[in-house]
Amino acid sequence: MKRIILWDHDGVLVDTEPLYFEATRSALARLGVDLPLDGYLEDMAHGITAWERARRRGIDEDRIRRHREARDVHYQRLLSERDIGIPGVEPVLAGLAGRYAMAIVTTARRADFELIHAERQIVRHMDFVLASGDYPRAKPAPDPYLTALERFGAEPAEAVVVEDSERGLRAAVAAGIDCVVVANDFVRGQDFSRATARIDRLDELPGVIAAL
Description:
By secondary structure, the chain is of the alpha/beta class. It has two domains: 4-14 and 86-211, 3-Layer(aba) Sandwich (Rossmann fold), CATH 3.40.50; 17-81. It is built from nine helices and six strands. Helix 1 (17-29) crosses helix 4 (61-81). The longest helix has 21 residues, at 61-81.
């Protein structure tokens, strides 16, 4: 019997992944580095930062740092300008909140997360949020999800992870937790063969979890 839902954030609860890619590609372009989408997604699945492309070109760490900071500013501007809501998310969360303990487990920076949720009601359904810096290693390492289990005092069999990307699925599998993958066009070509279940819409999730 599952009693805990661990939610990925970007791509599951808000539609931010294309914006992060756009901001990162733009910053790398100013360094003269190309970032094709297929290469970005392949690197992401294995936890390889896009900035490795700049390092392989011999670009020094100070220039990379400055362009990463510029990317962060650009990304926050996009978050403020674009519609990143995913229809149906809040009703699903409201329906699950009384039946399961829940947490968000994200690789997002805390500053970005707080900007995203300044006027949203998603976080009120959660017991806690783990963001970048709250665990030793980021996804696809299991650390984020293992840290969440520790916070709940739970075993892997008691939880289910909701993810949209191969990187997140790898993290869940490495932590020994069942993972439901919700369809997301941005990462549709990634390998989800190890998912416990796959769904097209978030409103399918309650029935899937109840059957696990």
